[in-house]
Amino acid sequence: MIYLNTTTDSTTQPAPSPVAPVPSTEQTSSIPYTTFALIALFVMIASYLIVKWIINFKRSIDKTKSTLKHELVTRYVQGFNWKSSAILNIIIINVLSITVVLFGIIYLAKKYEKPLSSAALSGFYGSIAIGLLLLIIFWISYIILFINGFKDAQYHHKKDLEAELKAIKNSLNINNYDHPELIKLDIEKIKAENPLGTKVIAKFIYQYNHLQEQKLEKQYLTYLDQIFKINLFLESLEAMEKSEKQNIEKIENQENETKEVVEQKSDTELTKLEKEIIWMERADRKVTIIKEANKLEKSLSKEEIQKRYEEYLYTIRNEDPLHANVQRNSWLTYRDSDIEDLFYNPNSYVIYSIDNGQTSLELSYKNFIIYYKDLLIKKFYSTK
Questions:
Q1: In sequence order, which residues have a C-beta less than 8 Å from that of residue 328 and are 6 or more positions away?
Q2: 372 and 365 in contact (C-beta within 8 Å)?
Q3: Which of 160, 198, 362, 384 could crosslink 191 through cysteines, CB 3.0-4.6 Å?
Q4: What is the phi/psi pair of residue 346, to 5°?
Q5: Could you read off the pLDDT of 282-302 as tens digits, one per residue?
Q6: Which helix (H) or strand (E) element contains residue 362?
Q7: How far apart, in whole angstroms, are the C-alpha atoms of residue 232 and residue 7?
Q8: Distance of alpha carbon 218 from alpha carbon 273, whole angstroms
Q9: Is residue 256 a contact partner of residue 248, using CB atoms and an 8 Å limit?
């Protein structure tokens, strides 16, 4: 008997293979660390410059007020104008801050072409915020310093300038306002030993000769600029002369003390022959120095001597803290090239004329500045 197998064979079906993921068309880019490092560098530099600018602008305002005193009746910061080197610092600060903002805007604009990671997005949004914050801090600081620095009623008389100048004139107690209308300089002679100082004085004299041709406000600004520079020059020069006198006295005292010790020792220990030998050695050293100086003067041209003199002045003044206070500084608006040039050679002389060249007069550099200041005050207030 044949039995038929009625059960169907159960065949095992193979498991379906996993479906491969469809490649995404949007892949986030890696974080641009180099760009962020550059942004961080710009932020640090801009922050440092803003702090430095705020400190020095406050000092410039204070120095302007303390030097001009009661003659300053408007909001005016010495040396702060669109032609000054201080404007370059403002431009640099704003360019750095705007660059930080632009970095963020440019990279965020590219996110549609190549999506950024969430960390990169946060970083670029942050750079825009920081850049804008730097700009806001800078300009708000400027406005606050300017308004707060001139908040006193003394500096709010721009509209009443003529009346205020009349009041100042009455307070000066000047009985005689006689002054020459024109001053002439013998520039060729005086610039030989003081080329930079002569340039500044020539500019002063030109403005003096044309002062009455200007409108009142322009006259006043020209007057303030000159009076400030003259006052600062005389004030700083007096401090330098006082310091130099003290140093000379100190050296002389030391030499006298040394001389006394040597003399006491000489009386007890040195013979007459030894004293003569010491005297001859000192004399020989002096003669040698004089001969070398004469030889050097003959071998060098005037240009080379002038160059070496300028190098000497530069070295000496860099080592002198008093001269450092009058060197050009683009952060302190009042210390411009005119202030520095006035101190080029204060020991020179000025040859000038107040009668259209008929009579030639001569004064030391310092005395001429004092004399000219008196004439400037008289000419400015004579018509007020």
A1: 85, 335, 336, 337, 339, 340
A2: no
A3: 198
A4: -70, -5
A5: 666 666 666 666 666 666 565
A6: strand 361-364
A7: 120
A8: 75
A9: no
Q: What's the token pair of residue 218? A: 């322009």
The ranges assigned to domains in the chain are: 33-155, 161-239+332-383
Question: Does the pTM exceed 0.85?
Answer: no
Q: What is the pLDDT of residues 176-188, one digit of tens each?
A: 889 999 999 999 9
Concatenating the DSSP letter of every residue in 293-313 gives HHHHHHHS-HHHHHHHHHHHH
Tokens of 319: 């080592």
Question: Do 272 and 266 form a contact (C-beta atoms < 8 A)?
Answer: no
Which spans in the chain are helix H?
A: 33-68, 86-109, 118-149, 161-172, 187-190, 195-209, 216-269, 272-299, 302-319, 321-324, 337-342, 365-382
Cα–Cα distance, 142 to 138 (Å, whole number): 6
Tokens of 36: 């962020």
Residue type, 91: I
